[in-house]
Each structure stands twice: as structure tokens, then as C-alpha cells.
């Protein structure tokens, strides 16, 4: 009596992944090792972000990445940490990173079976202001043919729809570091980094998104370039029709952080919709399919939501034409997404 109840049955990410592995007798343990390397990269990126202002890591690196964005010093460090972790795992054959123009091949591991796509630090325009950023990752298995021949996969072998992913997720380095991960056909689970223990602890098991919530998240500064249907849809949220008894309808709340990881994390917990539509200025949209749209779409769907592109096509079925290909995206609560789709018909 009086003593605080301490939870001694802590489920760490390592324990969680090991238990998942045991559910699949055919599993070789390769995925488990890949996840160990992944979680080390998340911890180290989180560590440098927290110390950035103290050790002179804010600001630009003086270079631009493949897609023309100015690289921040931390973009470069996050990318290097991620590549080193994937190489060190010995289980990753090819890596696609937002910060690298070409595919990175780990030829020293010709039998590695996995391919990873990542955005090492998503939302990096927010970095110097201390706003949440995060890492997005998507994991897929190379085809049996590529594995059997131990050959280097070609770019076309890597351009698959999101339905082929074996796992995906993202981290958010905010007030605390959060990790959200889902495996094919499974639930979505959320972990919080306990920095004293250096472990991600399962804090949000089996995440299910609310079916609806009156929150929208979009950069309205792009309205001028939107298609008419998109303008009308967002207007319908802001200017709802009067109720039957003549009272004002209740408009939606607007929340936009400008870091997809943070906007997506809020959407997972609270519900609502997040959008980055394709528009007249960017007909392919802004966000990248392989390491931004598809992994987020997988998380949203497996948490009970939906994700589509600007043509209202299921995002997980979109096949990119190149490794840095982009797409418009709408994702979020199931019922809110039904409204998005109806409004764009
Ligand atoms: P980044 O990968 O260069 O950080 O860009 C992706 C980010 C997303 O996190 C966010 O949703 C979007 O770009 C914000 O774009 P904008 O500033 O145009 O609203
Ligand atoms: Mg990004």
C-alpha cells in the first residue's frame, strides 16, 4: 500500500518484434535484425536532433538534394546514419533515400532479401524552429527470382505498389520520440522512446483511428492552384450548410504543422483528414510515393482509415514510375475520406 504500481511487464520494440517472429515459424530472423538496425538509426537521429542547437547542427549544409530541396546539416547526418544502419544490418540489399539521387546497393550482402525506402528527416524545413520532424520508412522483400539469382535488383524491380510492402511506419521526434510501425496484414502499434532505458516501449497497442473527426490538415496557401473540386471540398468544411432548424453548421478545425509525420500522427490519434493534393502548379503533387505516401497509406489503412491519390485511386495501388516519383495524397478517418471521395467524383 502506498507504493507506486510499477509496470514490470514492459514490452520493448525488440520483444515485440521477436514475439511477432515466433508467430511465423518460417521466419528466418532477418526481418528482426533489420528492425534492430532501424531502431538504432531512429535513436541516433533523435539524439542529434535534440542536441542540434547546442552542437551547431542547425542551418543549411550548402547542398541541394535530388529533388532540389536545400539540404539541412541534419538532413545529411540523418541520411548518413540511416545508410550506415542499413548497411550494418547485413539484411538490406538496396536502399532508396529522399536524400540520394540513385539507389544505394549493398553489394557486400548479395543474399540480403530486403529493400528499404526512407525519408530520413521528414519535415526538415521545421528543424531549426524545434518543431517535430520524423523518419518515414517502407520495407519490402525482393522477388524470389532476384533472391534466387543473388543478382543486384534493377530499378524496375524496386518500383512496386504499396500493396507489396511487408512493413512500414514512421517516427516523430517531438516532445518525446514516437515510433509507429505496422506489418503486412497486422495491426498498427505505437512505441515511445524511453531515453533513460534507450528502448522504444509499446505505449499504443493496436492503434485504431476514429472513424470521423472534424479536423482538416492542408497547406491552404496552395488554394490558388487547386482544382475546383478541391476548393469546393475544403470550402464545404469551412462553410457548412445551415442545420434544419436554421442554425449555423459547425465548421471543421484547421491544423497544419507542415511535417507530415506530425500531421499524420495527430490524425492517427484524433482522426480527421490530411491532404497534399496535386494542383495546377505541381500536377504530380509534392510528396514522394515510395517513402512518403505509400508507407503512410499502409499505416492509415491498417488503423482503419483510407488513403487515396488526387484521382481518388487507392494510394497503395499506385505504382511509381521512378524512385522519386510523386503523388497527390488524401488520407485519414474512414468516414471523412468517404466525403473526400464523394466530393471529387
Ligand atoms: P521534406 O521531406 O523535404 O521535409 O518535405 C515533406 C514535407 C512534409 O512533411 C509536409 O507535409 C510537406 O512537406 C509540407 O510542405 P509545404 O511546406 O509545401 O506545406
Ligand atoms: Mg519528406
UniProtKB/TrEMBL annotation:
<feature type="domain" description="Fructose-1-6-bisphosphatase class 1 C-terminal">
    <location>
        <begin position="209"/>
        <end position="344"/>
    </location>
</feature>
<dbReference type="Pfam" id="PF18913">
    <property type="entry name" value="FBPase_C"/>
</dbReference>
<feature type="domain" description="Fructose-1-6-bisphosphatase class I N-terminal">
    <location>
        <begin position="11"/>
        <end position="205"/>
    </location>
</feature>
<keyword id="KW-0479">Metal-binding</keyword>
<dbReference type="InterPro" id="IPR020548">
    <property type="entry name" value="Fructose_bisphosphatase_AS"/>
</dbReference>
<dbReference type="GO" id="GO:0042132">
    <property type="term" value="F:fructose 1,6-bisphosphate 1-phosphatase activity"/>
</dbReference>
<dbReference type="InterPro" id="IPR028343">
    <property type="entry name" value="FBPtase"/>
</dbReference>
<keyword id="KW-0460">Magnesium</keyword>
<dbReference type="InterPro" id="IPR044015">
    <property type="entry name" value="FBPase_C_dom"/>
</dbReference>
<protein>
    <recommendedName>
        <fullName>fructose-bisphosphatase</fullName>
        <ecNumber>3.1.3.11</ecNumber>
    </recommendedName>
</protein>
<dbReference type="InterPro" id="IPR000146">
    <property type="entry name" value="FBPase_class-1"/>
</dbReference>
<dbReference type="Pfam" id="PF00316">
    <property type="entry name" value="FBPase"/>
</dbReference>
<keyword id="KW-0119">Carbohydrate metabolism</keyword>
<comment type="pathway">
    <text>Carbohydrate biosynthesis.</text>
</comment>
<dbReference type="InterPro" id="IPR033391">
    <property type="entry name" value="FBPase_N"/>
</dbReference>
<comment type="subunit">
    <text>Homotetramer.</text>
</comment>
<comment type="similarity">
    <text>Belongs to the FBPase class 1 family.</text>
</comment>
<keyword id="KW-0378">Hydrolase</keyword>
Amino acid at each position: 500500500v502506498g507504493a507506486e504500481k510499477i509496470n514490470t511487464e514492459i514490452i520493448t520494440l525488440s520483444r515485440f518484434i521477436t514475439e511477432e517472429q515466433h508467430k511465423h515459424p518460417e521466419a528466418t530472423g532477418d526481418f528482426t535484425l533489420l528492425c534492430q538496425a532501424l531502431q538504432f538509426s531512429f535513436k541516433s537521429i533523435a539524439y542529434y536532433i535534440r542536441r542540434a542547437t547546442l552542437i551547431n547542427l542547425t542551418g543549411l549544409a550548402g547542398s541541394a538534394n535530388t529533388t532540389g530541396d536545400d539540404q539541412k546539416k541534419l538532413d545529411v547526418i540523418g541520411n548518413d546514419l540511416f545508410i550506415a544502419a542499413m548497411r550494418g544490418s547485413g539484411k538490406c540489399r538496396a536502399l532508396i533515400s529522399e536524400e540520394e539521387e540513385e539507389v544505394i546497393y549493398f553489394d557486400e550482402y548479395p543474399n540480403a532479401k530486403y529493400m528499404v525506402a526512407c525519408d530520413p528527416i521528414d519535415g526538415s524545413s521545421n528543424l531549426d524552429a524545434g518543431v517535430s520532424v520524423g523518419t518515414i520508412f517502407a520495407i519490402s522483400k525482393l522477388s524470389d527470382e532476384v533472391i534466387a539469382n543473388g543478382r543486384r535488383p534493377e530499378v524496375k524491380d524496386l518500383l512496386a505498389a504499396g500493396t507489396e510492402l511487408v512493413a512500414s511506419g514512421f517516427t516523430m521526434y517531438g516532445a518525446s520520440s514516437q515510433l509507429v510501425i505496422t506489418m503486412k496484414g497486422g495491426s498498427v502499434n505505437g512505441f515511445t522512446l524511453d531515453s533513460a532505458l534507450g528502448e522504444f516501449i509499446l505505449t499504443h497497442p493496436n492503434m485504431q483511428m476514429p472513424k470521423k473527426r472534424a479536423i482538416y490538415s492542408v497547406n491552404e496557401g496552395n488554394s490558388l492552384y487547386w482544382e475546383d473540386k478541391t476548393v469546393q471540398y475544403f470550402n464545404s468544411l469551412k462553410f457548412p450548410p445551415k442545420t434544419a432548424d436554421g442554425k449555423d453548421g459547425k465548421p471543421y478545425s484547421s491544423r497544419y504543422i507542415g511535417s507530415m509525420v506530425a500531421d499524420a500522427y495527430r490524425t492517427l490519434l484524433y482522426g480527421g483528414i490530411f491532404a497534399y493534393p496535386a494542383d495546377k502548379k505541381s500536377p504530380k503533387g509534392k510528396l514522394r510515393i515510395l517513402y512518403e505516401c505509400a508507407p503512410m497509406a499502409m499505416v492509415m489503412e491498417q488503423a482503419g482509415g483510407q488513403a487515396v491519390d488526387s484521382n481518388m485511386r487507392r494510394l497503395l495501388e499506385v505504382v511509381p514510375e521512378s524512385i522519386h516519383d510523386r503523388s497527390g495524397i488524401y488520407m485519414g478517418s474512414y468516414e471523412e475520406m468517404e466525403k473526400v471521395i464523394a466530393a471529387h467524383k
